[in-house]
Amino acid sequence: MSDLTRLTAAQMADAMAAGDITSVQLTQAHLDRIGAVDGDVHAFLHIDAEGALATAAAVDADRAAGVELPALAGVPIALKDLLVTKGLPTTAGSKILEGWIPPYDATVTRKIREARMPILGKTNLDEFAMGSSTEHSGYGPTHNPWDLERIPGGSGGGSAAALASWEAPLAIGSDTGGSIRQPASVTGTVGVKPTYGGVSRFGAIALASSLDQLGPCGRTVLDTALLHEVIGGHDEMDATSLNEPVPAVVAAAREGALGDLTGVRIGVVKELRGDDSGEGGGYQAGVKQRFQESLDKLQAAGAEIVEVSCPNFEYALAAYYLILPSEASSNLAKFDSVRFGLRVETGTIERTMGATRAEGFGDEVKRRIMLGTYALSAGFYDAYYGSAQKVRTLVQQDFAAAFEQADVLVSPTTPTTPFKLGERIDDPLAMYLNDVATIPANLAGIPGMSLPSGVAPEDGLPTGFQILAPAHEDARLYRVGAALEAALAAEWGGSLMDQAPELEVRS
Ligand code: GLN
Question: Model pTM greater than 0.90?
Fold first, then answer.
């Protein structure tokens, strides 16, 4: 049998349904791969070989008995370690949660179990999902499989690296300001931030509740769509959950793959295109080149390309870095030494709380808690948090106007290809600038996708193409994304991941 880990998730499902392979074989192949390369990649914080194989064996037994199974039954998956998993360690990348075993499942975890997908383990992330490189993880960084000296993006670098190193065919991420899309961009994979409320946040450890959204990660647009349909839908446990059916994203991906975008209007966001003026300054030449080539492909597929302007995006990053710390400072108050995880005993409860938080939280988390507490304090609330909320409304209005002129909006996902580990860790502002193109979608609650647009000629590293759609119109991302993916695959003679360098395998 050729290497099972190289199949797409859709092919894995078909091969199991046809009786060509079993889920135990498939799951074992991924566990072997993790054993061979994760010492170098460090995508996983926890591996559950026993649980994954037990799920796989049960699926195989049911299939043999003729039981009807869900579409992705038996296809293994990795979960960002921000999703609580009953009986499995959950750390959110923080030392403050080391050793904590949740007593319940997140809704997304439950849906994955109901879909009968073996859970390989929990993936690394920046502590409490604060970051763009996984270097803020309390457990050491993840390495980019394209170049182990480089960042895999963040905060969901573990999930993206697991995909790009063939350790898992599918993964779950969370996106508060880009943590699904930016890691996808720098690892040559696909990631989707659904419409806010489209996937339940119940049991996802909260960073900034008005911005957070869980979403699917894969190596192809269709695989990502298949997972989106598993995890989406209404949940009474999440008060912000949309009360509507999951958009028909699988059908949209299949339609898009046929390659006809006649009648689709694609808006290039002037402010996110990488012009040297405004927020676009500082984009790498190869990123801009691959973006333009992708636009040409979409036009060749029949789409109409228009330019749109979103003048208030200039303020989006600043507004985000007030709203996010404000909400985070409140959400993280619950880590108090009493309820979960770490406890540094000092004799009095006040000092124990302080000592626990001082030891358990890393620098970036402390920085944001201080920023947020300050922004929310009496006397500064209107000047900072209040102003940021007004900018949020302006960003939403910019999107509304742009979507009058275009069905989807597009930009490069990130201004550069992955940078070197250590390069920006001491410069928070440089780190924050990674997210300039992804943050507006979170402020507005709209869906977004990143998919590979190639590798930059100057460094041979992946570049990402971002597609944004109006709220509830997630299916448009998949239609346009699948069309672009098909056009690029025709040119490359396969997927971008086929061009990734081979990792050294350790026995
Ligand atoms: N990199 C961004 C930040 O540091 C986004 C984080 C996220 O989406 N979780 O806040």
Answer: yes
